[in-house]
């Protein structure tokens, strides 16, 4: 094993990383049909594969008959058994505080359910009248009424308030046709998504302390007590998806206390959306963001701490969650990929960096190559790199579907995501995949993330832009306003964190070299105060396409990177847009993760700003360190990632590069198909083209060898191109590189397993398994489990579940199950002898 000359102890830990860096999985329990035997079986299988723990998630039922209800004593006993068994196996156990998402259920009464404003314009005449204005939906009550001259569609939006007397309004006389605008408030009607049996009901009001406390007492407390707080690492809240919720019964009083004026006379600005109402709309939605933190996030955080567990949350979505709201959590999580934008992983990682939270997780593989069983290990790996490039350093895989062993192959599946389960045909590669991810996760926890730029989030414009009936997703709206600025910064070699006025100032000043304001035309008083304080402390401020503050230097979007060049030298450039980089600074060394995010081989030249005298690469497949010489230039296979470690200290002379390979091409292959038949084949070989179906087959070749013996089995990066296919989900990650095989192969040399081929470049160290004379090489190829998804027995599970329990889900892209699959060996394997050192 090649060892590090730059950071020997760090590199040794990289080879054998600690267990806490292992990927976890979201463990879906479908209704209450899981058993203790299922629990034991699945947790043991996870532990064997190198998975580090579970997040228990309770979702919709699949079996038509359910033995228990969610929250019942028998169900809670199963939760307790799972928590204890996980801990006994050394697995982390996290607990979702409810069923489905967002929090809610049958225990939520109408007054504590999510609330919304409803707007209605009614034409009226010029005569005085007393109007009775009850809400049209159960629970709705009028909260404000307004009058404008002109009929609906003809008035100018200049509404004047009418005084309400309960459900009545006194309308004064006018001069002609008029429009009455009525605002009523009541339950949104939203039901918990993907709920378990017995957990059906409304989503709770996230702006209400009473609603949060009621849910904690009714649902969270029994769940945590059943699991045992001593067995639980964290309680979890999924992404906020509370649709159309923009009201709570005491909102007017809270607004007056926080903003200093009465909102009711101005409420029509939420509907009419005139420019003069921008300040009110910003104040209104800012108040909702305050209430989310004060009445939902903070109480759950306090509740968890009182019980000795941590609170993990995906703090984005609707209600309008701010990035700084993560201060009300112990563990920070995001999701999504896309390094040239601001995915939710970047949003979460930015918060973690400024809150000194060393580990930031991501819900990974949410919409990977679908349907569920189509995703291959290289897809999982390729998307994982995108999360790492956003600053994530812990994977919580989406996910493991808890499936009875007797279920039709390939077992139950969640409606979305990749199926991370031992029922998956490619599972022989799982230990290698999870070990690879564990090493990279651990490496990206060392030192401190380097991001020279702070990117100000344009909340004020986002708040003011929300219109009636829109989702109040502050993450989505504020990051969209940034336009192409994030991509331009990444292309220029800069990394950044997104921040807001409540991000700790000391952290901003310590971590960043400049502040960029983009997508903003207005700033709140709090924004202005914080930015002026940062500028006064010496942080350069650049405003893109806006005159906001005299302290800010103005530039245009096309000129931004040029303006930054005068202030900040790019931290790390790779020389190719497909190759991303993320940088961790150590006390006396630097770590850079370089990842080829595209389907073609690329040569990257790393140009770091930090001076170095020596460098080496670390391979996450085996933990080996390889010294470099000269410029940092790497040949990267499609979707390949490597760690580069640099040091200011000179290292020993690097060995000369290896000489050319001495390949021995393997020929005369025989194939034993899924049906047990054996025949000679010519490569490339696609067994479906020969009328064979199934997920596993074996290729066998014999070869006569003489000294010096080869040491590597190589398929390389050649093969058949990935077939074009329809992808409806924009976040559905698929690796599009040419395939040497589909999807993995277990190599067996002379009767002994030598390892698994699953990644590009497709190579395997055979050690001393070859011998002089005749050798037998087998490649046991495992495809995906998609063919089994076509069976009537498998598909009947989902139709029967809908018939029994209603339409609680829709399987993602199931029409793509019928697309032809392609399994086999697509290139001629070679054996490579030791490469002599170049003179």
From TrEMBL:
Keywords, comma-separated and alphabetical: Hydrolase
User: One GO molecular function term?
Assistant: hydrolase activity
Query: What is the recorded name of this protein?
Result: Glycosyl hydrolase
Q: Which InterPro entries match?
A: Galactose-bd-like_sf, Ulvan_degrading_GH
Q: Where is the signal peptide?
A: none
| Source organism superkingdom | Bacteria
